[in-house]
Amino acid sequence: MSAYVVLIRDRMKDPEEFATYGKMAAGARAGHEITPLAFYGAIETLEGAPAEGMVILQFPDTAAAKAWYGSPAYQAALQHRLAGADYRVIIVEGLA
Q: In angstroms, what is the C-alpha Rg of the chain?
């Protein structure tokens, strides 16, 4: 069953670090079956704290999502995201 990784940017801290993350994260997709469903489009907050940005990625299953997130290429990029912005990252399973 499909799984979705939701990346929610709460606050930008360092645009240069974040730009480096963006370049590295794009390369970290190689070898992983990822379908972007939303990528920093317009956001309207209906409840809760507002987000600055959001990405939703679809994977074949939770194991594939975790394999991408834990991959050496993404982990290298992640260090720049952590330095560049505050995020929440969630994996949610889709419906059978």
A: 13
